[in-house]
Amino acid sequence: MAGSTRSSLCDLRIADWLEIRGYVLAVSSQRDAAREVSAELAHRAAREDISLEPQAQIYAGLGDKDVAFALGGDMNERSERIVAGLSGIAFVVLSAVVAALPPFPAVGASAQAVVAYYGAHQRAFLVLNFFGVAGLVPGLVVLAYLTAVFRRAEREGGWLWILTLAGGLFAFIAAWVDLALFQCAAYAAVRGDERIARALSDVATLTFGTFFLAQFAFSAAFAWAARALRTWPGWVGATSALVALLSLVASWGAVDTAGALAAGGPVTLVAFLAIVLWFLAFSILILVRAPSAAPAS
Q1: Domain ranges of the chain
Q2: Cα dihedral sign, 200-202-205-211
Q3: What is the pLDDT of residues 156-195, one digit of tens each?
């Protein structure tokens, strides 16, 4: 481990030295020598995890602003993908912990049953539900990234990126409201306010059903944009369309308060699991593959 760390530090020092040497050669009008240094850096970058910034600095010294800008853009794009991908994984982990809670009371459950449920799981519910709310923060980073990708890929005047952003914000707001209502229901139950706790629990459960309608809007918009703009492999849009269909079916839980389709029932749990797994797969894809920048024809 220590040997690996020393090797990495040594590689970084060599890259720094080559950057300085190449830049000095470039501004001294020794263009061929500077390009040789840049070629050596490119060779190292292909084999090692080093930044493209040294090459960008050399080309800036040579006066080749276009190449320098392109190299700097590649570096920034990779950084954006790392931040977005890791944020997506954080969103998945924090959202998935909510599933560790026992099934919450169904709509119409007695006040005594609601108070008994939250009383038995008070601390775990409040903490895990809070993690679910916190998970929305890194989720917004992913939404901003994919919206920016769609915007860059669209022609001027395109609106699919706006539709995707609006659908994503709709889903995030619905999720935040629902989780906040559940948090309030837990507090009311613990305080012994049975009627208020039951009312909040029913509203939160019904809102869980309507959340899937908002998720349908986002997943459908994303599937449409991904297919039209071809920014990612075809399976990304296809699986997003499947998640949209499952979400649409699950949204009926806001109407059907009993049976398999009821909010909190098996259909909504399958839809929730599909959403989490899709976000996980997409976050990993962001980390390992850059999106296509070509605008749709």
Answers
A1: 2-63, 79-288
A2: negative
A3: 888 999 999 999 999 999 999 999 999 988 888 878 788 8
